[in-house]
Amino acid sequence: MGGRNTNKSGNAGSKSSNTKSPSDSLKARKSYPKTDVRYWRSRVFKPVSSRGSTKISSEHFAVKIQHLGKRKALSLATANREEAAQRARAMWTDLVSGGWEQLLAKHRLRPAKEPMESEKKDGLTLGQYVELVRSKNLIPPATLKGYLTRGLP
Predict the structure, then answer these.
(1) Considering 9, 78, 109, 134, which has the largest number of Cβ atoms within 10 A of its Cβ?
(2) pLDDT, tens digit (0-9, with 9 covering 90-100), for 8-17
(3) Contact indicator for 147, 133 with CB cutoff of 8 Å
């Protein structure tokens, strides 16, 4: 072939159609660091639980995080994937900087606090209870009025 550079298909100087350039492989598979929210977008999920033969999908996203040989699934308490990814990223950075105890203390959902002694009410009358509910705006006034007219003789 006298000094001419050819490949198996006989095309001079052109690349084979099966060969991918390094830039093509980078485009096909993007990799982000764990400190980037884009990393977490594909790793948040909605847990599915089984009740008998029925499968129930959670409304909120969760994430599985592994660090120092320990793995946990944590609720992200949001139904928005982008917000879930941001919360997962924040959890990861807290975990790396402070460990599992700090992560769980800061991000784990906690049960409602017990009322303080000054807030505890024993032996409330119906009127006192209604006033307490009104003062804290726990029920809209129209709804409360409807309850009271139906419940009283």
Answers:
(1) 78
(2) 555 555 555 5
(3) no
What is the C-alpha separation between 62 and 64, in angstroms, rounded?
Answer: 7
| 62 within 8 A of 45, measured Cβ to Cβ | yes
H-type helices in the chain, by residue range? 22-28, 37-41, 81-107, 126-135, 141-151
Angle between helices 126-135 and 141-151 (to 10 degrees): 170
Q: What is the mean pLDDT of the chain?
A: 79
The domains of the chain are located at 28-107, 116-153
Q: Where are the beta strands (DSSP E) in the chain?
A: 44-45, 48-51, 54-57, 62-67, 70-75
CA pair distance 72, 100, nearest whole angstrom: 10
Both tokens assigned to 146: 């409807």
Closest CA to 37 of 1, 91, 77: 91
The answer to whether residues 81 and 48 touch, using CB atoms and an 8 Å cutoff, is no
